[in-house]
Specification:
217 residues, alpha+beta, Glutaredoxin, Glutathione S-transferase Yfyf (Class Pi), Chain A, domain 2, 4 strands
Length: 217
């Protein structure tokens, strides 16, 4: 199978290690699939040709021998549907994996991003002093519910799946804020998943171009 993936040539340090192509790289590494990466820059992002592949000009965009698609969650689900490393082969197991992928993207990530945007993009602005406590309460409610489900289990279900993969990429954005440390079992899930060799390979693959194309100081 010939797999092509797009990723950024370079991003500012605060975004390095968090760009969404990491999710797809990790899924491909878990499945043992080779892939080729096309590095893009703002000029390519804005081009008509790229927008026909990725309407929003973002990364990743993906194609293999049969499909062309975008959105990291959709791409990971496409890969997981074919490879047992990312999902059980029985219908019930695949349904649970899909449920957790969607839960990570719809129930947890929006609350995470609300807080991250306040802390990263609007830090120090007067209006954030009132908004941040509200955002943190909403986030804590979702994390508490997730932590209650996880309990003392190693993974969200009875084995590692793409649901854990996507959830980990969401949770790890809370490490620097200290929020995740208030939920030890969720932080342990994040650490457990990040310790997987496939994650390390995916992270190194994303970071290498950033080092190679860093602006001259």
């Amino acid at each position: 199978m010939s797999i092509q993936l797009t990723a950024f040539r370079w991003v500012p340090p605060f975004a390095q290690g968090f760009v969404r192509d990491l999710r797809v790289r990790w899924a491909l590494e878990e499945a043992g699939l080779p892939y080729q990466v096309t590095l893009i820059d703002p000029e390519v992002q804005a081009s008509e040709g790229y927008r026909r592949w990725q309407p929003f000009g973002q990364v990743p965009a993906y194609r293999d021998d049969t499909v062309e698609m975008f959105e990291s969650g959709a791409i990971v689900l496409h890969i997981a549907a074919k490879y047992e490393a990312l999902a059980p082969r029985d219908e019930a197991g695949r349904a649970r994996m899909t449920t957790w992928v969607i839960a990570a993207l719809n129930s947890i990530e929006p609350q995470v991003q609300n807080l991250v945007h306040l802390d990263v993009f609007h830090a120090g602005e007067a209006w954030t002093k009132e908004r941040r406590p509200q955002a943190e309460v909403a986030l804590n409610q979702r994390l508490a519910a997730l932590g209650a489900w996880l309990g003392d289990k190693d993974y969200l279900e009875d084995r590692f799946t793409a649901g854990d993969l996507i959830m980990t990429t969401v949770l790890r954005e809370l490490v620097d804020s200290g929020v995740l440390s208030r939920f030890p079992n969720l932080d342990a899930l994040r650490r457990r998943c990040e310790a997987r060799p496939a994650f390390s390979r995916a992270m190194e693959a994303q970071m290498q171009p950033f080092r190679e194309h860093a602006p001259a100081s």
